[in-house]
Each structure stands twice: as C-alpha cells, then as structure tokens.
Design brief:
By secondary structure, this protein is an alpha/beta fold. It has nine helices and 14 strands. It has one domain: Metallo-dependent phosphatases (Purple Acid Phosphatase, chain A, domain 2, 4-Layer Sandwich), CATH 3.60.21.10. It comes from Candidatus Mediterraneibacter quadrami.
C-alpha cells in the first residue's frame, strides 16, 4: 500500500507539472533564429532577414497581439512571409484577431501570404462558409499584402533576387489518415517549373503541409518553409514531434531546420492551436531567418 501511495503521488506530481507546463506554453511564444546559406546567396551585400509566421489560428499575445508585433519589429526583417492557417476555418469563427495583426505587418516590411488548409477550406467550400474567404482576402490585400495562391512574387534582399512561391494544395490532401500522391510534377503543375519560376533567383517555397516535403525538394526550391503540424503537439526533446494533424506518428519534419544538400527545410511549430489545445515541450514560435553568404 505504501508503494502504491508513493506511485500515486509521483504520478499526480507529473500530471500537475505537465498541466502547468502546457498552460505556460499555450500562453507564451519564443523567437527561433536560423541561419541559411547557399550558392545563390553569395551576392548578398549584407545579411538579410526574413520573418516567418505560421499557424496563428486567431491566437493573441498581449493586447491586440502587440507582443507578437513587437517581436516581428525587433527582428528588423527585410521580408515577412506567412505560411497559412492564421485563422480558424470553422463556421461562426471570427477571424478579426488574425486580421488585426496581419494588416499591421506591412508597416514593418513587405509581406507575402500563402494559404494553409484553414484558409483553403473557407475558399473551397462557399456553400458552407459563404463569402467569408472573399471578405478575408479583400481585407488582407487592401493592406498591401501579396496573396500567393499558386503564384510567385519577387523581391530584392540586400542585392539578391528572391522568388517567393506560394503553393496551394487542395484541401483533400489534408484528410486525416490519408496521404495523397504528390510529386515534383504535381508541384510543377501548380506553379510551373522551378527553373522557369526562379530564373536564377534564390527560390523560396511556402508550402503549408510538410508531409509532401520530398515533392517540394524535388521541385527544386532552395528554401522550403512549412508549418501545419503545430510541432507534433508533444515533442520529445532531442527527437521531435509525436503526431501530425492527419494522424501519422513521428513525422520526419515537425518543427526544426534541416539541410538537404544545398537545400534547406524549415518547419515552424506554429504560433497557435485549435481543437486540440495541447503543447508540451513545444513552445509556439516566431521564426527569424538570417540569410548569409557563408556561415
């Protein structure tokens, strides 16, 4: 009985500690910095900075998201990229918290926005959501933000031409317990060939779902930015995330930077949650990317 009592107390302590940590992580974010180099960045006149936001899901940090906005401003970005799922794609869900933040970003730097599955759901299912997506897109674009729906935009970052492509995959490719057949040719069908699109520029691909990373790399992006997985909900230190929204365990890419030869993959752990409001050892993050000639 004494042993059982001790075990019960230990389990109770662990549960309480986990609950406290989950609460803390759901209400705070960190800034994660990565350094990216590559053959196409040798022409940089100085280091360039990109801020990457993903998966906010209407969450707020401080009044009117002032804490998050200040963190973006403090990074001193030359370019701000949004990887999708800034809102929650459900009926009768207000997207104003996300919109209020997004509309203030162009005051800091040029902004490009690629869709996630939550924006895609609103767009593809007007019979359910009405004209919510059209209103949201109009409000975003009127702020001067470039919406990338299977399109490419170009920017100059400290003397280097950058091509930013926003991939919009059909919502059906996000179905639970299923993985669609997505190949480099599929990406080319949506965006055109990377060689033609980039035309010698440093090619950044905003592709929300990292489940199809092999196709993105095969397409030829120099830097792939993804999100969607919320870091795998619970992360095992030194190992990675546990589960994806589609129900797959231990994804290869879940919330880190990985180099694949001359190509770089960065997957954001995201800034918010929805439905399963759980994060453990998985702090929400704002990503700051420093582009450099050499390490």
């Amino acid at each position: 009985m004494e042993l059982l009592a001790v075990l019960f107390i230990l389990v109770l302590i662990v549960v309480i500690a986990a609950a406290v940590e989950i609460h803390r992580e759901l209400h705070h974010f960190c800034v994660t910095e990565y350094t990216v180099t590559g053959p196409k960045l040798t022409g940089l006149k100085d280091d360039a900075t990109i801020v990457f936001l993903s998966d906010l899901h209407n969450c707020t940090y401080g009044r009117d998201n002032d804490a998050l906005l200040q963190a973006v401003r403090n990074a001193g970005p030359d370019l701000i990229l949004i990887g999708g799922d800034m809102l929650v794609g459900k009926e009768d869900t207000d997207f104003q918290p996300a919109l209020d933040l997004i509309k203030r970003l162009p005051e800091i730097a040029p902004v490009c926005y690629a869709l996630g599955n939550h924006e895609g759901r609103l767009k593809e299912e007007p019979d359910i959501y009405g004209h919510v997506y059209d209103r949201y897109k109009a409000d975003v674009e009127i702020s001067g933000i470039c919406f990338l729906e299977n399109k490419t935009a170009y920017a100059d970052c400290k003397g280097v031409k950058v091509a930013i492509s926003g991939l919009e995959l059909p919502v059906q490719t996000y179905k639970k317990f299923q993985k669609s057949r997505i190949t480099p040719d599929t990406i080319e069908d949506f965006l055109g060939s990377s060689r033609t699109v980039a035309d010698g520029a440093f090619a950044i691909l905003l592709a929300h779902n990292p489940a199809y990373m092999d196709a993105y790399l095969g397409w030829g992006a120099d830097l792939v930015l993804s999100g969607h997985l919320h870091g795998g909900l619970v992360r095992i230190p030194g190992f990675g995330g546990i589960v994806t929204p589609q129900g797959f365990l231990f994804p290869k890419y879940s919330g880190e930077m990985t180099r694949e030869g001359d190509q770089t993959v960065i997957v954001s752990r995201g800034l918010g949650t929805h439905t399963l409001n759980i994060r453990l050892f998985n702090m929400p993050e704002l990503i700051v990317i420093r582009l450099k000639k050499t390490l």
